[in-house]
User: Fold this.
Amino acid sequence: MRSLVVIPARGGSKGIPHKNIKLLNGKPLIHYTIEVARTLFNDEDICVSTEDEFIIKVVEEIGLKVPFKRPLSLATDHSSTYDVLLHALHHYENIQGAYDTIILMQPTSPFRTATHLEEALALYQPAIEMVVSVFETAANPYFVLFEDDSKGFLVKSKSGQFNSRQECPKVWQYNGAIYIINAKALKKRSHLQFERVIKYEMEEANSIDLDTPLDWEFAEFLLQKK
Assistant:
């Protein structure tokens, strides 16, 4: 199976400025993801997709070449990950031939390990469209999540007669760490529209996604405490 690893790293982060290259416990955030990718894949199959010169510089400081600069049209707040993945796939396939899978690894998941990636890859089969990393969320729509009805009253997001959260069906939340995507399927439709998707479960502590300054402070705390 031939895989292209895509690490999307846009420069314009609002929640945490320059997030992808900000030092986390003394190391640029994006380096954590590159290091994991390099344990299983060669550099020529690892694509950092960015429009930002500073990110390119930080990536190339550790010897990983960034072969193109992402078009600005794909680096806005409204740009879709789907379009970014297709752009990277077309670039690499034009040069290096066809890929069977795309492995999307977001740089905001520093607690994802090589073992996680290896285990998720072992679940992939060509008959499915995607393996995605998840964790069991306590925010259960059968019990603690509510929506406004047509009259403005709160109703449960998902109906069911349960007396405790422990009785509810388990629900899973994407953690953004690992997406193993069937390349042929992606050329037909977005990965968000896939139906043949299986989960790879990770612990909540490994699923931390850095989006806010509080997330960052917590990640620093965990790394310092090992």
Notes: The chain has six helices and ten strands. The helical segments are 29-40, 53-60, 81-96, 114-123, 183-186, 213-225.
